[in-house]
Amino acid sequence: MQSIKKIKNLKGKKVVVRVDFNVPVKDGKVEDNFRIKKGIPTIEYLVKNGAKVIILMHLGKDGSSDITPVIKEFFRLSKLSKDKVEFYKNVRSFKGEEENSKELSKGFAKLGDIYVNDAFSVSHRAHASVVGIAKILPSYAGFQLEEEVKNLSMVFDKPKHPFLFILGGAKFSTKMPLIKKYLKLADSVFVGGALANDFLKANGCEVGMSLTDTEGYGIDKLLKNKKLLLPIDVLVQKKDGTKEIKNSHQVLKDETIIDIGPQSVEYLNGLVKSSKLILWNGPLGKYEDGGDLATKIILKEMTKARGITIIGGGDTVALISDMKIENKFTFVSTGGGATLDFLSSGTLPGIKVLK
Q1: Cβ count within 10 A of residue 70
Q2: Per the confidence metrics, is the pTM higher than 0.90?
Q3: Is 140 exposed, middle or buried (0-12, 13-18, 19+ CB in 10 A)?
Q4: What is the pLDDT of residues 282-319, one digit of tens each?
Q5: 8-state DSSP, 3
Q6: Which of the residues 121, 155, 299, 355 has the least number of beta carbons within 10 Å of its own beta carbon?
């Protein structure tokens, strides 16, 4: 990738910057501005060096969301002049964005002289505003994109040991390649969240009403790997709504696992203290149902860790923002699916095109 610092002369140039400001908005106000903050340094650098910036972004899935609250929050945070930074329309509102239409890519390219991708979290999508435009204009990587690549590469390019990988959340099909890859690269792989239910079930445990995946994914073979760590105890929710800590082998058929238990937390915290590299993706419980305690306790422990701490995954990042501890880790990725794809394959379509 070519960095924006390689651009020789920005004075008077129009620079189209793809950002990911797809943030939660409620009642016309931005609820979490983490991604906006991360995108500001690139835009400030371009403006400071004489460029006019045209911002491409999306909000929501179908393109119908109004981006006005995001624009207001951006100018409140950046203090940049509105005559130096212009927001284009929600790119998802254009037919052909997600299909990487050549015509739409040409339309986006006409907006400026140079293209900059600073939207790591959508760089796994071969869309017109990510890949198509980059094939037409001279293209560069923004500071946040560079930071993502540099920091996430640490986990597969000569990683430090002991290396602990904590993986939670759901979406088994997208995370299975990660489990297989990091069982080779890491010293310990702890699986929590809904992902753990499938492993516990395959290991002969009752998981009751807990979310599981119907596919097999070759779990039986993975269970033999001594690096694979599963919850020792769990927090279950009973049919009447009450909660109880149980050994992983004691869950009943009418109960639902919503979090890992205190013994598992204590064990994980010990690994956090002794590891030189910790990578975490995905929450360890159903935090929307009150299963957020374990994740919060271990995140706090990680803020005191001596090793390198890297956090990736939309839900985990949302929790970190809520706890106001974003700055207490070595690196917090802005990506969700993009982080998973990058950790699995080492590159993304939106990165490959920046030559």
Answers
A1: 24
A2: yes
A3: buried
A4: 999 998 888 999 999 999 999 999 999 999 867 788 88
A5: B
A6: 355
